[in-house]
Specification:
Layout lengths: L14 H5 L3 E5 L4 E4 L5 E2 L24
Antiparallel strand pairs: 1-2, 2-3
């Protein structure tokens, strides 16, 4: 974790980590997420090689952005 990320930022795409920021993992195979607050679903843009980008867990509607 770098100095700009909060302690609540999930480090991996796991159900328990995502629940901490109000997100549910809908599908692991294609990394499909759902906001627990508004219900919006999205697939985050992956890095080359399939890695998760910083902030991948943030709802596109801004529900869990801090």
């Amino acid at each position: 974790m770098n100095g700009r990320e909060s302690a609540e930022s999930p480090h991996g795409c796991t159900g328990p980590q995502l629940k901490k920021v109000g997100v549910s993992l809908v599908a692991l195979a294609n990394v499909r997420l759902r906001c627990d607050r508004c219900g919006r679903c999205w697939s985050p843009n992956l890095r080359p090689g399939g890695g998760l980008r910083k902030g991948y867990w943030k709802c596109p509607e801004g529900c869990n952005a801090k």
